[in-house]
Write a structure and sequence with these properties.
Layout (H helix, E strand, L loop, with lengths): L13 H15 L11 H8 L3 H13 L3 E4 L3 E4 L6 E4 L6 H7 L4 E11 L3 H7 L7 E10 L2 E11 L13 H7 L6 E10 L2 H7 L6 E10 L5 E10 L3 E4 L7
Parallel strand pairs: 3-10
Antiparallel strand pairs: 1-2, 4-5, 5-6, 6-9, 7-8, 8-9
Bound molecules: 2-acetamido-2-deoxy-6-O-phosphono-alpha-D-glucopyranose.
2-acetamido-2-deoxy-6-O-phosphono-alpha-D-glucopyranose binds next to helix 4, strand 6, helix 6, strand 8 and strand 9.
Length: about 240
């Protein structure tokens, strides 16, 4: 990023030249996913460009998803997202799915507590008047890439200690004989609101998938009511269809 890389007389507007230079550095691997970019002031000094020009160039790369800005910590090269194909006909957990792919699982907890249920939780879980709900909210990531926000609600009678769930909810349920064996899942389209988009490291307004899962124990009792937001740029959901009778 030396000053002589940018020319007033050819190559288009200076911010476009900077955009191109950074995009090339990402494409060639000179800048790798997760690398941080020097602060605006430093970048301006390195390139001899004005701070306004640097800001415009960086903003354009953020808009196209090649850079991500994290409030308070700077600008980074965005993780490369490879689309994942997810079978819809199997009742698996996020951890199981990722391990099967040989990928690392990380969860960032947003909350994990027992509390009085909201009306939709009472209905979905079939709770009684004084029943409490265990609520687990987390951002699920794989190999450092945030993929989904999951908000799971369970009867507190089944999970009185949500803080015990470290990695896999289903593993904790299985160890207690409460592994769900059947689930109904609904998928709909959603544009990600600013707050959710930030948690997922994408631009506000991009396409997401809202997934609602209600899971059952062999007895027919509802064990889980989970509302998730999955990144639309990261998932392909696939299901095998059979000829209708
Ligand atoms: C999946 C399920 C979610 C379940 C979670 C458990 C969808 C849309 N969601 O992500 O309902 O709570 O797995 O994962 O498929 P865990 O065992 O890794 O915590």
């Amino acid at each position: 990023f030396t000053p002589d890389a940018f020319s007033e007389t050819g190559g288009g507007p200076l911010y476009v030249q900077l955009h191109r230079r950074i995009a090339e550095a990402i494409a060639s691997g000179e800048l790798k996913p997760g690398d941080s970019l020097p602060p605006e002031r430093e970048l301006a000094a390195m390139t001899g460009l004005s701070r306004v020009t640097v800001r415009k160039g960086v903003e354009a790369l953020v808009a196209s998803g090649q850079l991500v800005q994290k409030r308070g910590s700077g600008t980074f090269v965005a993780p490369r997202v490879e689309r994942l194909e997810q079978a819809l006909s199997l009742l698996t957990s996020f951890t199981e799915d990722m391990r099967r792919r040989g990928m690392q699982v990380e969860s960032r907890w947003l909350s994990r507590a027992v509390m009085p249920p909201a009306p939709e939780e009472v209905m979905a879980l079939g709770l009684g008047a004084n029943d409490q709900v265990a609520r687990l909210e987390r951002v699920r990531s794989s190999d450092g890439v945030p993929l989904a926000i999951e908000r799971a609600s369970l009867p507190a009678s089944i999970l009185p200690d949500p803080e015990r769930v470290e990695t896999s909810l289903y593993a904790v349920l299985a160890s207690r004989g409460h592994r769900p064996v059947r689930a109904v899942q609904r998928i709909s389209a959603a544009n990600l609101a600013e707050k959710d988009a930030m948690l997922l490291g994408v631009l506000a307004g991009v396409a997401g998938l809202r997934i609602e899962r209600v899971s059952y124990l062999p007895s027919g009792q509802v064990v889980e009511f989970t509302r998730s937001l999955y990144r639309g740029d990261a998932y392909d959901f696939a299901v095998e269809l059979k000829l209708a009778p």
